[in-house]
Amino acid sequence: MKVCKKCHQSKELHEFYKKPTMADGHLNACILCVKAYEKQRRFKIADHLQAYEKARSSLPHRVQARKDYVQTEAGKQAKQRAINAYRARQPMRTAAHRIFRNAIKYGKVQKGTECSECGSTHKIEGHHDNYLEPLNVRWLCEVCHKQWHRHHTPIYE
Q1: Residue 92, Cβ neighbours under 10 Å: how many?
Q2: Tell me, what's the pLDDT at 153?
């Protein structure tokens, strides 16, 4: 038995991470407290981590490695598996996108030319607030569209 220094509860040793440098070979905080701390820490430094990962993924050798991988048979299969998994996880969203794409293709809906939020004319996308109404969209630029999804959840039911 060992007492966690965070929650002050007495717990079995298997409920603590191993750490050879500690006297008893286990960390002083239990696994649950360590996970809670890490989750909170990652939330606090999320902007820093996002900027770091973006810079890291933009390194020339990483960009080239991704381009090379996509051209391989394994890369093509991985992409198809990801597409299929997305479609299985999001059937309502997939159906709405398909219906909307066909409506544009056959002239039932006219594609927007500017963002309804900021007025930009660069990379305009159709956005569904409610996937139950696939032809009811707002036209948003790529930036506003991503920002909307960061702060909101679309309606599925």
Answers
A1: 15
A2: 80
CA-to-CA distance for 132 and 102, rounded, in angstroms? 16
CA atoms within 13 A on the CB side of 135: 9
Report CA-CA distances (Å) from 142 to 32, 83, 104, 147. 39, 21, 18, 9
CA dihedral 152, 149, 45, 59 (to 10 degrees): 180
Q: From CA 137, how far away is CA 157, in angstroms rounded?
A: 16
In terms of DSSP bridges, do strands 2-3 and 10-11 run parallel, antiparallel, or are they unpaired?
A: antiparallel
Q: What is the pLDDT of residues 2-36, one digit of tens each?
A: 999 999 999 999 999 999 999 999 999 999 999 99
Residue 134, token pair as written in the block:
């696939």
Strand runs labelled E in the chain: 2-3, 10-11, 16-18, 26-30, 124-127, 138-141
pLDDT band at 157 (very low <50, low <70, confident <90, very high): low
Asked if 36 and 14 count as a contact pair (C-beta separation under 8 A), the reply is no
Residues β-bridged to residue 126: 139
**CA 131 to centroid of chain Cα atoms:** 19
CA 53 to chain centre: 13
As a whole number of Å, the CA-based R_g of the chain is: 24
Among candidate residues 103, 104, 138, 141, the one with its CA nearest the CA of residue 119: 141
